[in-house]
Amino acid sequence: MATIINIDTSTEVCSVSLSKDGNLIGIKENKDGLKHAQLVTLYIQDLLKEANLEIKNLDAIAVSKGPGSYTGLRIGVSTAKGICYGAQLPLIAIETLQTLTEGAINSIEQPNKDAWFCPMIDARRMEVYNAFYDINNNKTVEIAATIIDDESFKDILDERTVYFFGNGSEKCKETIKHPNAIFIDNISNSALNMITLAHKAFNNQSFEDVAYFEPFYLKDFVATTPKKKMF
Description:
Blueprint: E1 3-8, E2 14-20, E3 23-30, H1 36-50, E4 60-64, H2 70-87, E5 91-94, H3 96-107, E6 116-122, E7 127-133, E8 139-147, H4 154-157, E9 162-165, E10 181-183, H5 195-203
Parallel strand pairs: 1-4, 4-5, 6-9, 9-10
Antiparallel strand pairs: 1-2, 2-3, 6-7, 7-8
Helix pairs in contact: 1-2
C-alpha cells in the first residue's frame, strides 16, 4: 500500500502523476518544453489538492533520473529531493529510457514477443541516448550515447525485430532502413508510465540516498549559446 508522486522532467515534457497501489489517481502534463521550473511544483500541489491529500500522506517520491535534458533533469531531481528531505520521504529513481519503453510496450496490442524495444532520446544532431529492452521491459543492452548511421544496430536487427520510438527516433527513420526496424510514433515521456516501475521499486525498498543522489546525465554538460530559448 503506497501513495507516490511520480515526476518526469527529463525531456521537453513536464509530467507529474499521483498514484496509489500502482493505480493512477491523477496526472498533469505540459509538452511545450519551456515551463518545467514553473509547472512541476504547481502540478504536485494541484494533484494533492484534487485528491484531498497532503505531502504527509505520501509514502515516496519517484523521479525520472535520466538520461535526458541537463536542465530538465536538474529541475525534476531538485524538486523530488527537496520534498523528500523536508517530509522525510524515500526517494525512488527510475531510468528515463525504461519509462519510455513502458509506454511503448503498453501501446502495442500484439507486439512481437521476441522483439526488442529501443527508446531514443534526442541528444542533438544525429546522436541519441538509447538502450534495448525485451517485451518484459528488462534491459538487454546498456544505455549509450549513439551516433546514428545506416549501419547502426545492424547486428541486432539481423537477428530480430526492433521497435524504435521516443523523441530521438523521428530523425532516424530515413537512416535506419533495415526491414526489421519498426518505428512507433507518438511515444513521449510521461509520469503515467512511471507508476508500475515506481511501485515495484517501492515494494522492493529500492531507494536512493537523498543527500547524495544525482541525475544520470550520461554525458558531461557543455554550456553553449542557444539559438532559441530552451527549457
